[in-house]
Design goal:
Length: 329
């Protein structure tokens, strides 16, 4: 595609567009429109995949499942790409899914592909081919981390996110990406997670509480609507199914403590490269806002711990109130 064609295509035309129906709504809040990707994040074994199946269940039945409502037309399809589970584990989950729907065979508008044994570049090529040939309305990638060799590699991570943007826009679909959170910061893992957080329309976090044996879905980023009220579920042993329960609001003192020294120098450098990827310098307030998002912490930690550490260790420098990366570090 020639540059003049790209510019012409990218030019914004100031005209009214027809009302767009959201693809995914949670608790009456818009989570995804077509031509976008969203993230479902959480620590390992936090039931992210379980919630992904609830999205599929809502799509197949047309019903709201634990406040999740997926809108579709009669001929629309949904595809699940699994990059982690063995065929035996996946078969077990598919049986649970069919049992919940009281069906004996998988619905015709749903298909799944298991790519656990393949390399990232081949998985990406296969997904691209599936999208262009099967033309699904929604595709779920569980887990996005398996589409890169190194989630901390900036160029590799950027390429995957650019591919997500391109493939979703060209095919007018929604891509749901499952991502692991880092245990030390509770932020999406690596540069891949940081780029995904920046590029997504919405980011949802799944948290499992071992003490109460409950799992909560909450919004952590919403681009097109206000944050939805968290949804909490628990597996009922008597009913042999998940049920919705009241969300318990825990005190901040019970939250995982942020430990600055758990973050390596290289991780600091990688995060700063992403923060300053489009600009050479930033004012204090802008930098604090970016640090808060990048590190997944509150304003006080950004102001009182992270920024002083970055300055004290000369990762960044300040001149006339403007901060920039120290390239000599």
């Amino acid at each position: 595609m020639k540059l003049n064609e790209i510019i012409a295509e990218a030019y914004f035309k100031d005209e009214d567009l027809p009302e767009q129906i959201p693809t995914i709504v949670i608790n009456s809040k818009i989570v995804a429109y077509p031509s976008n990707f969203i993230n479902i994040c959480g620590l390992p074994k936090s039931f992210k995949t379980t919630f992904a199946w609830f999205f599929i269940q809502s799509f197949v039945t047309g019903n709201e499942i634990f406040k999740i409502k997926v809108n579709k037309e009669p001929n629309d399809k949904i595809v699940l790409i699994d990059t982690e589970q063995s065929i035996y584990d996946f078969t077990r989950q598919s049986k649970n899914f069919k049992r919940a729907l009281q069906i004996s065979k998988m619905p015709s508008n749903f298909s799944a592909f298991l790519f656990r044994k393949y390399e990232p570049d081949l998985i990406i090529k296969a997904i691209t081919d599936i999208i262009y040939n099967d033309k699904p309305k929604i595709i779920i990638i569980d887990n996005l981390t398996e589409l890169v060799n190194n989630p901390n590699d900036m160029l590799e991570s950027k390429a995957v996110i650019s591919w997500l943007k391109k493939i979703s826009a060209e095919n007018n679909i929604v891509i749901i990406c499952l991502l692991h959170n880092a245990k030390s910061t509770l932020a999406s893992i690596g540069n891949l997670g940081s780029y995904a957080d920046r590029g997504c329309q919405s980011s949802i976090t799944i948290k499992h509480d071992k003490e109460s044996q409950t799992t909560t879905m909450e919004a952590t980023q919403m681009r097109s609507d206000k944050y939805f009220t968290p949804v909490t579920i628990r597996f009922d042993e008597n009913l042999k199914t998940f049920i919705e329960v009241e969300t318990e609001i825990k005190e901040k003192s019970n939250s995982r403590k942020f430990i600055l020294m758990n973050i390596t120098d290289q991780e600091h450098k990688d995060k700063l490269k992403i923060i300053f990827i489009k600009v050479k310098e930033m004012a204090y307030s802008e930098l604090i806002a970016e640090i808060t998002k990048m590190y997944g912490v509150g304003l006080n930690i950004s102001k009182q711990q992270i920024l002083p550490y970055l300055r004290g260790n000369e990762f960044i420098t300040a001149d006339n109130g403007l901060y920039t990366i120290n390239k000599n570090k």
